[in-house]
Amino acid sequence: MRVCFSSLLREFPESCAKFTMPVIVAVDTSLSMWRNVFEGEEKKTTRFDIAEECTNQILDNVTSKFKLESMAVLSCSSSVTVLSDFTRDCSMLKNSLKALKIGDKADFREFVNYLNHFVVKTWGRMQSCTVIVITDGGIVSVESLDALKNATTKNSLFEFPCNIHFLCIETLQTLKLSGSHYLLHEILKKNEDLGSVVPLLEAKTPEMGLPGMVAISIDKFLNNTLKTFETTLSCGNLSSRISIFPSPKAQKSINSSLETEVFTVEDKITIVGFLNISDIRNPPVLSRHLLLPITSTDVEDISTHPSFSVVLHGSLKMESKVALVKLATEWFGIIYSWADSKTKSNLVLSILPVGLNCIPWLGNFNQLAPASMLPESLSSKKPSIPSFPVQSKRFMKRSYSQPTVAWTRATGLQTDVQKILRSAKKLPEKSHVFYKDLNRLRRAALSFGFHDLLDGISALLERECTLLPGTAHPEATLQLSHAARELKSTINKGHEHTIEPLKTDFKFQGLK
């Protein structure tokens, strides 16, 4: 079983965009950034010069440690400029800094609005993103803070999960005296306390100098914030040291005593069993991560070093199974082989919600066991009878219609979409059925956070509108166009919103 590291390393593509934690570096180019850091120095160094050095240091660090990470560079003052769109090319990111130009007054509200559009357009609303703002602390004003508080009632500033960090080229004392420290922390409170305020300047010492002082502060920030997560993956007597990318986040869950517990992935995760892909189906997951083997520096030739993770990857791929892994007490995940093309596949960890019953059709995880341990009366059943879902009185199907939508199988989603398309072909006679099924699917998609599905259905309806035969009723075209338009425009509206049929007067018109 001497399977080498190099064979698995070749399997992981550099273009695996689904497993990433995008990083945005924003440089404040307002007029205040062009002040000198220390007025009494012979060599004049502006805050803008320090910001440029900080950006280069961050780019070098992230691109060297996280080769799969996508980064973008922005400049912000009263408007926002994209210096470099999301890329993994470090040289392109560094060259974009040459386009930095002096701006005017900073407008943080404009920065937030632009960032929402910029990130959602590329990654959608479900992708977490890290935003690093290099500033002198004056990027947030009292006016912009009040405007942001009045503009939205949401708990977060952003339309996507965001960790925002302010790297301030000031001392902590100066930030507090100017009031910037309070304003920046108010922004963090509005963002659910996801982020930090980091003063880069400390008490100056002659032997260190300004560049060394800032470099140490940046290194400390990067080591605490952007770090790799390493753990040991084990199964029986076999084990392998792996890196999880991107780093898994701690999760909060309410226990039986109604107290909030924080769960973190342990230093050793254990495979507790294997399941068929057909049994696991499509469970809800919190996040997905790549599992990368860690190469030992003591090994001269990686190709001769055995790796358990390579064996696991090949076995899961060939047997069409998933591994159920225990991340912490009452917290599980599944490991499987995922292919993004015909020639490349990856070992992926999907983290499940906290709890023992996070996949209802599997039942309690503590009660799962090999089929050989079942009593003879149950194990002698016909092979056609599936092992799952676990039959329970709580989940028994009733004789009446169930309003709940459950897309545990791909065929369930396909059936619902096809039902809508069949009704669309029979408009306007089937208008009632069409809009009833459309609203039902819309509510389910919003509940699951499946916003891309609504965009896809909208495109399908627009396509059906162009394929209608010449003998079709004129109202059919109007209703399809109306439904496609409403489906897109109501993505951000609540579940209680209902798409109503377009009111027309064709029934009162006749041919002369």
Helicity range of the residues?
25-40%
What best-fitting shape do the alpha-carbon axes yield?
Answer: globular
**CA(first)-CA(last) distance:** 84 Å
Reported for the largest beta sheet, the result is: 7 strands, mixed, barrel
Number of strands: 15
- Count of helical stretches: 15
Please provide the ordered H/E string of secondary-structure elements: HEHEEHHEHEHHEHEEEEEHEHEEEHHHHH
Helices and strands: which structural class? alpha/beta
Low-confidence stretches: 1-17, 508-512
Structure description:
The chain is an alpha/beta fold and 512 residues long. The model is unreliable at 1-17 and 508-512 (pLDDT under 50). The protein is built from 15 helices and 15 strands. The chain is globular. The strands form three sheets. Strands 7-8-12-15-14-13-11 form a seven-stranded mixed β-barrel. It has a six-stranded mixed sheet with strand order 3-2-1-4-5-6, sandwiched between helices. A two-stranded antiparallel sheet has the order 9-10. It starts with a helix and ends in a 23-residue tail after the last helix.
Compose a concise summary of this entry.
This protein is of the alpha/beta class and 512 residues long. The protein has helices spanning 5-9, 47-65, 90-96, 108-123, 142-151, 172-178, 180-190, 209-225, 277-280, 308-319, 376-379, 410-424, 431-448, 451-467, 474-489, and strands at 23-28, 71-76, 80-87, 129-135, 162-168, 195-199, 229-235, 238-245, 251-254, 260-263, 268-276, 287-293, 321-328, 331-339, 345-351.
